[in-house]
TrEMBL record:
High-level lineage: Archaea, Methanobacteriati, Methanobacteriota, Stenosarchaea group, Halobacteria
Segments forming domain Mechanosensitive ion channel transmembrane helices 2/3: 180-216
Membrane topology: Multi-pass membrane protein
Protein family (similarity comment): Belongs to the MscS (TC 1.A.23) family.
Annotated segments matching region Disordered: 388-407
PANTHER family tied to this protein: SMALL-CONDUCTANCE MECHANOSENSITIVE CHANNEL (PTHR30221:SF20)
Gene source species: Haloarcula marismortui ATCC 33799
Cross-referenced Pfam families: MS_channel_1st, MS_channel_2nd, MS_channel_3rd
Name of this protein: Mechanosensitive ion channel
InterPro entries assigned to the protein according to its UniProt record, in alphabetical order: LSM_dom_sf (IPR010920), MS_channel_1st (IPR049142), MS_channel_C (IPR049278), MscS_archaea/bacteria_type (IPR045275), MscS_beta-dom_sf (IPR023408), MscS_channel_2nd (IPR006685), MscS_channel_C_sf (IPR011066), MscS_channel_CS (IPR006686)
Domain Mechanosensitive ion channel MscS C-terminal: 292-376
The keyword Nucleotidyltransferase is annotated on this UniProt entry: no
Length: 407
């Protein structure tokens, strides 16, 4: 589908072209008058001095003045410098220096009679040919797009530092959306500068969007789910999570998938649309994780005393936090023991910290029970021969003693 258009002159463009043409006319007349009164050599020397001042001496003097005044003026000048966009300052400085160099070179050509600026640029600026002006406007718009993109990155960085809980992925997605908005807007403006009609292109893009949406609905579903995950934040990079049947540490979150590293060192990639429709357990979000260990004591043991000893043993373990305090709860009557559940908490939960804490609790409680002669029984069975009284009498009466011999 072809998009046709021509750079149609607009009243604003005509006014700009006429203003530039008038400026060039004044420049040429002034230089002709300077040559007539002072001569070409003097005019050339003046232009060299202007070039040296504008490109070398004035920037160096301004830099020196800024460094001197910043030492004397206090912190307010530094604050103003921090909030002044560095990129915009640099762009305008380079544009000014480049424009001055071009102006001096053109002036040299006019002074020595090589160029008639009015006759050269007149056809392009009087409204008959707008391509030069449209090209200049396009260059300025492209530079503006990159400057805005750079400044947007700075603003979003400051915003993320000021807002609590703003993650790097939210910062990245906000930056990408902003950059797309800026470049699409600048692109549409450039098309308007060149007089290109976008109506046909938009209709074709609409049909193409429908076809692509039907063909890649799963990918688009993952993309939309990725945006939802980034802003709802059920987990962040470094969290210990359980997604469906997959458990591990989150290593990356993209707009299409979530990546985990499980405890076997394997990397698991889960599409975001599958993450969003499964239960997600985040073991790191609160910063605390409760662990449990079952232990059994003999039926002849004082259960309350065993519970107190187990609490004291867990309190002395460095891997277990003091608040919430450890607790012991009688849980069940086992085959060989009264089963108690040891409950304790760890901070900054990770799989290594979990297993270190469990190992320390098991060793600590076992050592305490050994010191206090509290038995932790192993599975055992009690066997007994149960015979009813009637059966026993019948067995006794039915026994006949037969002597050896015939009979």
């Amino acid at each position: 589908m072809a998009v046709q258009g021509t750079a149609t002159p607009t009243p604003a463009a005509n006014d700009t072209g006429e203003g530039l043409l008038e400026l060039f006319t004044v420049l040429q007349r002034s230089l002709d008058q300077l040559v007539a009164t002072q001569g070409r050599l003097v005019a050339t020397l003046i232009l060299l001095v202007v070039l040296l001042l504008s490109v070398v001496i004035v920037p160096a003097a301004l830099s020196r003045l800024r460094s001197v005044t910043s030492d004397r003026a206090g912190d307010w000048l530094q604050v103003m410098a921090d909030y002044t966009p560095t990129t915009i300052r640099g762009v305008f400085l380079r544009i000014a220096q480049f424009s001055m160099v071009v102006l001096v070179v053109v002036s040299f050509l006019i002074v020595w009679g090589v160029l008639d600026i009015v006759q050269t640029v007149g056809p392009y600026l009087d409204g008959s040919d707008q391509s030069v002006l449209a090209t200049i406007q396009t260059i300025v718009l492209v530079m503006l797009a990159f400057v805005l993109s750079d400044q947007m990155q700075r603003w979003i960085g400051r915003f993320s530092q000021a807002v609590t809980g703003f993650t790097e992925h939210q910062e990245e997605i906000l930056l990408r959306l902003g950059q797309v908005t800026v470049f699409v807007t600048i692109g549409a403006t450039i098309f308007a500068v060149w007089g290109i009609d976008l109506s046909g292109l938009l209709v074709g893009a609409g049909f193409l969007g429908i076809v692509v949406g039907l063909a890649a609905r799963q990918t688009l579903g993952s993309l939309i789910a990725g945006f939802v995950l980034m802003f709802s934040r059920p987990f962040t990079i470094g969290d210990w999570v359980l997604i469906g049947e997959q458990e591990g540490i989150v290593t990356d979150i993209t707009v299409f998938n979530t990546r985990l590293e499980n405890f076997d060192g394997e990397f698991v990639i889960i599409p975001n649309d599958r993450v969003s429709d499964r239960a997600v357990t985040n073991r790191s979000r609160k910063g605390l994780l409760r662990l449990t260990v079952d232990i059994g004591v003999d039926y002849d043991t004082d259960v309350d005393r065993a519970m107190d000893l187990a609490r004291e043993a867990m309190t002395d373990i460095e891997h277990v936090v003091d608040s919430p305090t450890p607790d012991v709860v009688p849980k069940d009557f086992g085959d060989s023991a009264v089963v108690m559940e040891l409950r304790f908490w760890i901070d900054h939960p990770t799989p290594p910290r979990k297993w270190r804490a469990i190992s320390a609790v098991v060793r600590g409680v076992k050592a305490t029970f050994d010191e206090e002669d509290i038995a932790i029984p192993f599975p055992q069975r009690t066997l007994s021969n149960r015979v009813d009284a009637a059966d026993e009498k019948s067995l006794e009466g039915g026994v006949e003693m037969r002597p050896d011999g015939d009979g």
